[in-house]
Amino acid sequence: METTAAAVVLASGAGTRVGAKLNKVYLPLAGRRVVAWSLDAFARVPGIGVLVLVIRPQDRELADEVLADFAGEVEVVHGGDTRQASELNALRHLAPRIAGGRVDAVLLHDAARPLVHPHLVDAVLARTREDGGAVPGLAADDVVGVDAGHLVAQVPGAIRVQTPQGFRAGPLLEAYEQAAREGFVGTDTSSCMERFSSLPIRWVPGAPENLKITYPHDLVVAERLLAR
After folding, report:
1. Integer Cα distance of 60 and 155 in angstroms
2. What does residue 119 show for φ and ψ, rounded to 5 degrees?
3. What is the four-CA torsion angle of 61, 65, 66, 67, rounded to 10 degrees?
């Protein structure tokens, strides 16, 4: 039995802040749609054997257009009302393969981060398999805290977390099912794992270019970076 990792690319949000009627992950970027760049990065990592795209049902035609370039390599799952519900739908889709030991690790990634590089994906996957959980991030030197007396102080060791976030598949699925039973909704994958799993979550150095498309000018920046 061959064991592999799965990557889940989340494209089921609306992305209204970018100012377009279209779901932002289908906006054009350097000759392709935004989400295509992420899918291509994961498809180029040998350790990723299963690739899942989570979509909104109303985006099916756009998704099919993107997936035409991937020759049936990408499995499609419909998202839920929240990011966490969308992740759970993807994990339940993978559940038989997780239970059977065919998928040992899952990486979850925002489709709105089109500049993720295969090297970063590979680093997160390696750390996930070694320690159980991994998140990429950049040192947040500009983050400060405020105490009860309203005094400002630097927050040592703070990072700005990126995706993909990777976890051992079995504990990840268990944590998400428990969160669903208890009605807990976390801010991201790692917050759910911190609450419902004992797996250590390690930091992997992220990449400045692994930016998230949130506002219109982010598309301009991403286009310039890709032009390099």
Report:
1. 43
2. -65, -40
3. 90
CA neighbours closer than 13 Å in the CB half-sphere of residue 106: 30
Cα–Cα distance measured from residue 1 to residue 18, given in angstroms and rounded to the nearest whole number: 44
209-213: list long-range contacts, CB under 8 Å, 24+ apart. 209/115, 209/117, 210/113, 210/115, 210/116, 210/117, 210/120, 210/136, 210/162, 211/113, 211/115, 212/110, 212/112, 212/113, 212/162, 213/15, 213/18, 213/24, 213/25, 213/27, 213/34, 213/112, 213/113, 213/114
C-alpha 180/C-alpha 194 separation (Å) is: 15
pLDDT tens readout for residues 64-101: 999 999 988 999 999 999 999 999 999 999 999 999 99
CB 167 within 8 A of CB 189: yes
β-strands 159-161, 133-139 pairing = antiparallel
pLDDT tens profile 128-164 = 999 999 999 998 876 766 766 666 666 666 889 999 9
Output the CA–CA distances (angstroms, integers) from residue 170 to 44, 93, 140, 200, in the order listed: 24, 13, 31, 14
Which candidate, 96, 62, 83, 64, places its Cα nearest to that of 9? 83
> Six-digit token pair at 181?
């039973």
- Contact status, residue 128 vs residue 107, Cβ threshold 8 Å: yes
